[in-house]
């Protein structure tokens, strides 16, 4: 049996050289790269090893010897333990600069491209912005309490927190009360997670339950919901099994995009953008960049429940949305009817597969919008030879796959990169949401 190599115990003094893509300080010790949590470029510090591998090591700050001008005191007392945030020690302006620099670096390194023009960053509220989350729940018998929140940093255990500063306050400031309510249930150890879905008016908490709650449990949950103005639902199995408590009306959360005059209903487990302020600005920027007219036929790939598709339909002649998740597509169609938009159609297709024989794919489109998952859109890009759109807007939650796909569009598909920029969808984290515009050469 192999024994894990013991880590050095004594603090090591280093100067931080740069930041990694996930926001950790980067330095070298005896030629090996070391990633250090909460360390900023230019700072000299003592760190303690937390892990050591063949090619790299990890550490945490023991003593800060010099302090970066961009360092601030974290607003949350749980920062450093809870893994939800990684950037609270960095001032807001510098967070944006880091994300812009990372985007440019990824384009250079992976896409072999320079960004000709950096879009002004889209920014919004830095706290209380998060309206969608999956929170962990854990009954800890030794402490006699229920933990509700997120996992510890680089650890599978739930962090012991009593608030979350980035969560919408009605939920983020009521975690202890929520934990106390669950601790009084007969199934307190049979609730692994809560799906949080917050609309413009409604807050829905869907409890994943491994065993059915008793009538007394349901009454306790019902009273808690009324006291805190929350709608509590039960999820006995998969996401499509979410139902209200007995006798309670189904609350369907919704959000509106005021600039485009469209409203979206969604079910609690469905994907929606977590930051409504940035989402509105993002949609408006994408529509402006596409320069839409009633003569345009627009293709919206990875369309979800129509977050871009329906706004596109308010300006374009015809819009086709394509998404791999059937429940999302059904909901998108319902939302099109809700908004009385009859110039839009939706199709279900796995865009990681060859789709060229599908009828919608054989059509022509003058503009295309893409908003893929972290895996990017490489598999669908060869279809651009057929579509030949004049303009492409690519929205991304992963700058490395955006850079890769940008390289394909520019170097293989005959497009010119016009501009790209970041959108601060997740302040206080190293997560980078970005957008890029391409035009036909």
Automatic annotation (TrEMBL):
PANTHER family: 23S RRNA (URACIL(1939)-C(5))-METHYLTRANSFERASE RLMD, RNA M5U METHYLTRANSFERASE. Belongs to the class I-like SAM-binding methyltransferase superfamily. RNA M5U methyltransferase family. RlmD subfamily. Residues 5-63 form the TRAM domain. [4Fe-4S] cluster binds at residues 76, 82, 85, 164. Catalyzes the formation of 5-methyl-uridine at position 1939 (m5U1939) in 23S rRNA. This is 23S rRNA (uracil(1939)-C(5))-methyltransferase RlmD. The keyword Transmembrane does not apply. CDD domains: AdoMet_MTases. It holds the Pfam family tRNA_U5-meth_tr. HAMAP family: 23SrRNA_methyltr_RlmD. Its EC number is 2.1.1.190. S-adenosyl-L-methionine binds at residues 273, 302, 307, 323, 350, 371. GO terms for biological process: methylation. Keywords: 4Fe-4S, Iron, Iron-sulfur, Metal-binding, Methyltransferase, rRNA processing, S-adenosyl-L-methionine, Transferase. InterPro entries: 23S_rRNA_MeTrfase_RlmD, MeTrfase_TrmA_AS, MeTrfase_TrmA_CS, NA-bd_OB-fold, SAM-dependent_MTases_sf, TRAM_dom, U5_MeTrfase_fam.
